[in-house]
């Protein structure tokens, strides 16, 4: 290994040759080579991680180019795996790159994950995340999570040194895909780069015992105001006792019926008093941008605070972009099937946009 290659990081007092050697001897599995996976792979490859496994079964599409910046127009129609392996080899020929030209499934997950020290979730749907979580719990591997929606991103490290798992934060496996696919619902092109880079940093910290790992802490990034918030959650011991995968991780549909628009909620609000608006953002987010008429119950506290919800009223959940509110509505629906619970699409972002556009129309 050429010592000059990594001198800018080995010269760091708290990193040094010892940490560089740990990276070189590490094996990292990245599931997905899209908007999140690309910055993860590029930085870990550049920094000298010895072995990178890449799970990807898709081909490059024209709509990918806006955020998946390793691909170019000449790559459209080609295998993502083929293209990214070629680019990563050109970046660092010392890395052992192991391609898996497939998607992660119940049938192959345990066999693939077992050979790695840590797993990076760079997927875009709930079923894949529950599968990754369960495989990692069974095999006692940590995994670094990232999620995207419009202008917002989430980062967390699960199952790290006996810490909380994905199911400790999101206990309910939904029937449909609750986190919207960015191909359908949109994402600002640079947000995956920011979130993926933060994921790569967490991987490095885990592998080198550097700094404070985001275990038991969900980091929420809001690109519209460049804010970072953390919400804390605890380990639920039963989630660490898993010994086998679920029978199926398939989803029956790709929609969540109890989802309404801001306009629909405001109509309901004006026509009836039988409603309650619950903001599941962190206390810091809520205090910096309070929502009139809402009570604040952070998602991490929802299960323990369900008793605070008003009986007999329809419950409307809102967050910054619509990710956490979907999960909140799912949690309440699973525990109280007779209770009407809804998620407000687009969250506070769309709520504020609607107010601003309405005010502009009145002033023009």
Described by strand count, sense and barrel closure, the largest sheet is: 8 strands, mixed
**Approximate shape:** globular
Secondary-structure element order, N to C = HHEHEHEHEHEEHHHEEEHEHEHEHEH
In spatial order, strands of the major sheet run: 3-2-1-4-5-6-7-8
Q: Provide the low-confidence segments as ranges.
A: 359-364
In whole angstroms, the N-to-C terminal distance is: 65 Å
Query: What is the strand tally?
Result: 13
Strand content: 15-25%
Helix fraction, binned, reads: 25-40%
Determine the structural class based on helices, strands and strand pairing: alpha/beta
Mean pLDDT: 87
How many H/I helices? 14
Rg of Cα set:
21 Å
List keywords for this structure.
alpha/beta
Quick overview:
The protein is an alpha/beta fold.
Helices and strands in order, then pairings?
Layout: H1 7-10, H2 16-24, E1 27-31, H3 37-47, E2 51-55, H4 80-91, E3 96-100, H5 109-113, E4 118-121, H6 126-139, E5 143-149, E6 152-158, H7 166-169, H8 182-185, H9 190-208, E7 217-222, E8 227-232, E9 259-260, H10 262-271, E10 275-279, H11 283-288, E11 294-296, H12 302-305, E12 314-318, H13 323-335, E13 341-344, H14 347-363
Parallel strand pairs: 1-2, 1-4, 2-3, 4-5, 9-13, 10-11, 10-12, 12-13
Antiparallel strand pairs: 5-6, 6-7, 7-8
Helix pairs in contact: 3-9
């Amino acid at each position: 290994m050429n010592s000059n290659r990594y001198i800018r990081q080995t010269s760091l007092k708290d990193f040094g040759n010892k940490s560089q050697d740990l990276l070189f001897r590490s094996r990292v599995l990245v599931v997905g080579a899209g908007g999140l996976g690309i910055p993860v792979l590029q930085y870990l490859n550049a920094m000298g991680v010895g072995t990178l496994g890449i799970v990807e079964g898709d081909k490059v599409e024209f709509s990918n180019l806006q955020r998946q910046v390793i691909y170019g127009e000449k790559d459209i129609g080609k295998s993502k795996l083929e293209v990214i392996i070629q680019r990563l080899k050109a970046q660092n020929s010392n890395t052992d790159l192991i391609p898996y030209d497939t998607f992660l499934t119940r049938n192959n997950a345990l066999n693939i994950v077992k050979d790695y020290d840590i797993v990076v979730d760079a997927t875009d749907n709930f079923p894949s995340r529950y599968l990754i979580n369960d495989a990692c719990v069974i095999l006692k591997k940590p995994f670094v999570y990232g999620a995207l929606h419009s202008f917002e991103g989430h980062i967390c490290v699960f199952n790290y040194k006996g810490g909380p798992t994905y199911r400790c934060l999101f206990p309910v496996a939904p029937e449909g895909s609750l986190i919207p696919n960015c191909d359908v619902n949109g994402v600002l092109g640079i947000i995956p780069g920011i979130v993926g880079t933060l994921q790569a940093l967490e991987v490095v910290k885990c592998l080198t015992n550097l700094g404070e790992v985001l275990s038991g802490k969900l980091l929420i990034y809001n690109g519209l105001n460049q804010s970072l918030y953390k919400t804390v959650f605890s380990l639920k011991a039963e989630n660490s006792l898993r010994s086998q995968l679920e029978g199926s991780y398939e989803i029956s549909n790709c929609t969540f019926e109890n989802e309404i628009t801001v306009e629909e909620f405001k109509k309901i609000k004006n026509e009836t008093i039988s409603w309650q608006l619950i903001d599941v953002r962190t206390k810091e987010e809520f205090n910096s941008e309070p929502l009139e008429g809402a009570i604040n119950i952070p998602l991490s506290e929802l299960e323990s605070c369900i008793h605070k919800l008003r009986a007999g009223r329809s419950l409307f959940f809102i967050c910054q972009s619509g990710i956490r509110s979907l999960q909140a509505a799912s949690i309440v629906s699973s525990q109280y099937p007779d209770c009407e619970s809804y998620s407000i699409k687009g969250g506070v972002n769309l709520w504020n946009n609607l107010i601003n556009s309405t005010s502009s129309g009145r002033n023009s």
